[in-house]
Amino acid sequence: HVLAAERGRVGERYILGGENISMERMLGLLGELTGLPVPRVRLPVAPMLGLAHFNAGLCRMTKRMPRLPPDTIRMARHAMYFDSTKARRELGYPDSSARRALCSAVAWYREHGYAP
To answer: Do 77 and 45 touch, CB atoms closer than 8 A?
Structure first.
């Protein structure tokens, strides 16, 4: 965001992303980085979405955060790839590997007590 403020052109939009990977690859990397087991079974979306809505309703009543919000289920079924070429070219935005980004995220979650 600092690069966009310093070097960006007024009225332009920049995608600040990184390496595009599949959900399967991301879960595999997270398993490697955390030592936690990787999900092995792919479940159908419809029952999972129903369960997520049920869980979200319970969580609203108990004032807890849902472990798997319905929006997460809906978004996970779509491959979403983005291109940061313009940001790299015009802003000098650095390339970032998925492994490096996930490693940083895991460290942050652990440091703040959100993950073991």
So the answer is: yes
Cβ atoms of 98 and 18 closer than 8 Å: yes
Q: What is the pLDDT of residue 68?
A: 86
Report long-range pairs for 82-89 (Cβ below 8 Å, ≥24 apart): 82/15, 82/17, 82/20, 83/15, 83/17, 84/14, 84/15, 84/16, 84/17, 84/18, 86/14, 86/15, 87/3, 87/4, 87/14, 87/15, 87/16, 87/17
Other CB atoms within a 10 A radius of the CB of residue 84 amount to 19
How many residues are listed for the chain in this entry? 116
| Pairwise CA distance, residues 13 & 85, whole Å | 12
pLDDT digits (tens, 9 = 90+) for 66-115: 988 999 999 888 888 999 999 999 999 998 899 999 999 999 999 999 98
Q: Record the pTM.
A: 0.70
On whether the CB atoms of residues 70 and 45 are closer than 8 A, the answer is no
